[in-house]
Structure formats: C-alpha cells, structure tokens
Fold this protein.
Amino acid sequence: MTHSGASLPTTPAGWPRTVTVAFTGASGARYGLRLVDCLIRAGIRVYLLISQAGQVVLKMETGLEAPARASEAEPFFADLFQASAGQLRVFGRQEWTAPVASGSNPPEAMVICPCTTGTLARVAAGLSGSLIERAADVALKERRRLILVVRETPFTSIHLENMLRLAQAGAVIMPANPGFYSNPTSVDDIVDFMVARVLDHLSVPHALIQRWGE
C-alpha cells in the first residue's frame, strides 16, 4: 500500500516529517511494527525506541529477534522495513544525546505503541528514567503530539487516573480497542484498524480501512 507525504514541508535533513515510535513490553507488538511500516512507506523519518521488555514481547509475539545494541538494531530494522538511507534511526535506552531527549530538537510527534501501564504511570508522573520516558516528557512540554496505545484489561482506578492526568496534559490516550464494523477477516485487518486510528491522529494519509459510512 502506498502512502504519500510529498506535499509536507521538509526538515533540514530532507525528510517531510519525523515521528518517534516506542515499543514497550505490553502485548501488541504487531501494532507497533505495522505502524512503523506505514510511516516508512509514507516517506516519514522514524526514530525507534525499544524497551528491554519490548524486545522480549517482540520475540514472543512475532518471532523477531532484534539485536539489543542500537547500532546493530538500526540496520536490522532498516532492512526489515526497507527504509531509505537515514530514514530509520534506533536509539539506545540510555542514549541521552539522542535528538528526542531535548526540546531543542524534538520530533513532530511520538507514539508509544504498545504502551504498558507502567510506562503510562512513569510518563504521567514526569519521570525520565529511560529515553522512552524522557522523549515522552519532551513531547508533552513542547506541546507535540503524544499518543499512547495502552494495552491492558481491566483498568484499575490508578490506570484511569494516569490516563486522565496525561489527557489533561495534552496526550492522546488510545487503548488498543479495535472496532469490528469493517468486518475484519484476519488478524492483519484488526491490527490495521488500530494503526489507521493512530495514523489519523498523526495526519498521515492512508487507505488501511474503509471509513464509516463509505
């Protein structure tokens, strides 16, 4: 499927837009992989962050054994998504010199997909013990789009309070709750439904699903 970002203004590096995507240890690794795939196809530069638990879940749910070192993971994922040179960057969990760690060079948006309730809590508390948490904190303080695809059920009052706190701070809380009015016939269809909702909130054109009423 082809997406177009050609009409968007370019960054100094030449890419139309830059979006950070973080994989954490919640179930739903396929959501994150499909999201990165669609962003790359749309010609968007992606900064990829993966927690240690995220790597474990990635292997459990998809069979992908991503290298632990960012320097090795970057060519691995660039090849996986067939990214152009420099289009996909992978940063280490404590790589504090990464662009996403500073408000002077933030990406346009950040998506934590999937997002654990632990990550949700730490971001809501303003903690920055890892690059994922710091990048989310930067997105909030710089008034950039921050989307959290939370994957847990049921939610406790603590989870709900953390969601409310982040929503009030400007984040988009998007639990991984796919709809079925499009009559999905495969797991890929269900994954695409959620990814389509994320892309909508990033203003990235796509044709992953049939729109309501169409």
